[in-house]
Specification:
With about 130 residues, the protein is mostly helical. The protein has helices spanning about 1-30, 35-60, 65-80, 80-95, 95-125. The chain has a domain at about 1-80. It is globular, with a radius of gyration of 17 Å. Its main location: membrane.
């Protein structure tokens, strides 16, 4: 139960951070060529998950309450793209290049297909 609360608190903080950072970036650059706010939180999330995972693993703390709070909670609320990046990185780091490429392609293609499917379903139900 405590673990769920720790993750939930981290998730709430990450979600609020995502909202604030995305809105800040979009206000600062309203005519950006890309979705700058989303790009910012995804890039920041990937940087932070790499840094935090390396630090926690070096100290034998992977899976600890701090890991759950920061990686599963805060960064999970900030962006799940960071988890996608970390998992893909681990495949490449382990020399499993084909798995890494397959993960990258599968996640992106499935994501786009599911957005398309959701859009189609939404239009049917309108």
């Amino acid at each position: 139960m405590v673990q769920i609360l720790v993750i939930g608190l981290g998730g709430a903080l990450g979600t609020v951070a995502r909202f604030l950072l995305t809105n800040w970036a979009n206000r600062l650059f309203p005519t950006a060529f890309v979705a700058l706010g989303t790009l910012l939180v995804n890039g920041l999330g990937c940087l932070l998950i790499g840094l935090i995972a390396a630090l926690f693993q070096a100290r034998g703390m992977a899976g600890s309450a701090g890991w759950m709070f920061l990686i599963t909670g805060v960064l999970g609320g900030l962006t799940t793209f960071s988890t996608f990046g970390l998992e893909s990185f681990y495949f490449f780091k382990a020399g499993m290049t084909l798995n890494g490429i397959a993960n990258l392609v599968a996640q992106l293609v499935l994501g786009l297909l599911m957005v398309y499917a959701g859009d189609r379903l939404g239009r049917i139900w309108l």
